[in-house]
């Protein structure tokens, strides 16, 4: 009889250890939300740093292209200046979008991130095309 009673208590013990109150559930849900929010914030900050670095590097590349254009003459110089102006416009638009991104949250942040990635791809491809076009 003692064995059966001991087995019954042992078998039901885990059920008691998992019993939770409404408050415990609310607390765990709140902790999960805080963790998810923090993770999203960290991802956003990392993306902003990465994009800022890419734009800074592109700015240097465009500055080098400007120096090369200054050494050219005639139509080549004119073409390079047009390409550089187009690249700078795209870069400035991305810089403005990056500022907007810092103020965005939730769904808007996801949409802006996607848009910025596409804009970066466009800027990068335009730069490579211009660079190839004006190789010596």
Low-confidence stretches: 5-10
| SSE-based structural type | mainly alpha
Q: How many E strands?
A: 0
Major β-sheet profile: none
- How would you state the average pLDDT, rounded? 84
Order of helices and strands: HHHH
Radius of gyration: 29 Å
What percent of the residues sit in helical stretches (DSSP H or I)?
over 70%
User: What count of helical segments does DSSP give?
Assistant: 4
> What's the N-to-C terminus distance?
97 Å
Strand content: under 5%
User: What coarse outline follows from CA principal-axis ratios?
Assistant: rod-shaped
The number of domains is 1
What would you note in describing this structure?
The protein is mainly α. The chain has one domain. 90% of the residues lie in helices and 0% in strands. It has four helices and no strands. Helix 2 packs antiparallel against helix 3. The radius of gyration is 29 Å and the shape is rod-shaped. About 4% of the residues have low confidence.
